[in-house]
Specification:
mainly alpha, two-stranded antiparallel sheet, two-stranded antiparallel ribbon, 16 helices, 4 strands
């Protein structure tokens, strides 16, 4: 799908990029005619079209698992260059050299993970076991409750507002050390800027928040951005919500952040395509480390 086609949708911010997985694998079908595992994947791809919520997320994570390490597996955030639409979005919104320290290499990443909270909800150690528990007929109502609590998040993790660029090697670090929580990831980037951005200057974190539209994840305190935790006390020491109320708060915060940021990104993508010079000037404005906003809505009013 081309970027201009994407922007003509009625609600592009709500589009699930997992839907692009089928087109990706079909485009390479001619090079895998003798590969029965690849053909089996092609045969099952229609299941993705019919599924939604947690089921769709699970198929996205597992349908191509047998091809691991043999091909570049599709990923919505295109960290490996497998989603053309996402690559077009990155190129339009964030041309190279945005950060003050131009030596920083940036790569695509999914900001908020589904698997971590899914496993926490089920109490299982892996997303496969979590999904198996949801499918079990031995626990009446468990699947319905999982869909109620996490169904929207399973969809939203594949939407525009959940994609960003992060410093090289950071996506692996936060996945293993920070539970893939984006608030904890921002706390790490702020606390250890020299490690990830190559500079001890506090300006680079402010620039990162501004240039990547992360205002709903932060709040202005004095002369700097402080990260808003997804729930009270969220930290590396208190990685997961303590009860259902806290879990609901955490999930709702993430969903709201994804939706608001996605809506904002759609507006900026249209500006970048229709008025590239105006968008360039806006980027220069956002690179000013003295500039701070309270939220995406606040930024929209001022930009």
């Amino acid at each position: 799908m081309e970027l201009r086609e994407f922007l003509k949708m009625e609600q592009p911010e709500a589009y699930d990029f997992k839907n692009l997985m089928g087109a990706y694998y079909r485009s390479w079908a001619g090079k895998h005619e003798g590969d029965w595992e690849y053909q089996a994947l092609l045969d099952r791809l229609p299941e993705m079209d019919r599924a939604e919520g947690i089921e769709k997320w699970y198929l996205y994570k597992t349908l191509d698992a047998d091809l691991n390490k043999r091909i570049l597996r599709f990923d919505c955030d295109s960290w490996n260059g497998t989603c053309d639409l996402t690559d077009q979005i990155y190129a339009a919104l964030w041309p190279a050299g945005l950060l003050e320290n131009a030596g920083v290499r940036l790569g695509g990443d999914t900001m908020n993970s589904f698997a971590s909270l899914f496993n926490h909800f089920t109490g299982e150690a892996s997303f496969r076991r979590s999904y198996g528990r949801c499918q079990s007929r031995l626990e009446t109502g468990f699947q319905a409750e999982a869909d109620r609590v996490l169904g929207a998040l399973a969809h939203n993790t594949g939407c525009l507002g959940n994609f960003t660029l992060v410093p090289s090697r950071f996506n692996r670090y936060r996945g293993t050390r920070l539970g893939d929580f984006f608030d904890l990831s921002l706390m790490e980037l702020k606390a250890n800027g020299a490690k990830w951005f190559g500079t001890e200057s506090e300006d680079v974190f402010t620039q990162y928040v501004n240039l990547f539209f992360l205002w709903d994840y932060t709040e202005v305190k004095g002369e700097e951005y402080e990260v808003r935790p997804f729930f009270e006390g969220h930290s590396k020491e208190l990685m997961f919500p303590a009860d259902r109320e806290q879990l609901d708060e955490c999930v709702e915060t993430i969903n709201t952040n994804i939706r608001r940021r996605g809506t904002f990104m759609v507006k900026l993508l249209k500006l970048a395509l229709e008025q590239p010079e105006a968008y360039r000037r806006m980027q220069e404005c956002l690179a000013d480390p003295a500039l701070r906003f309270e939220s995406v809505k606040d930024a929209l009013r001022h930009i």
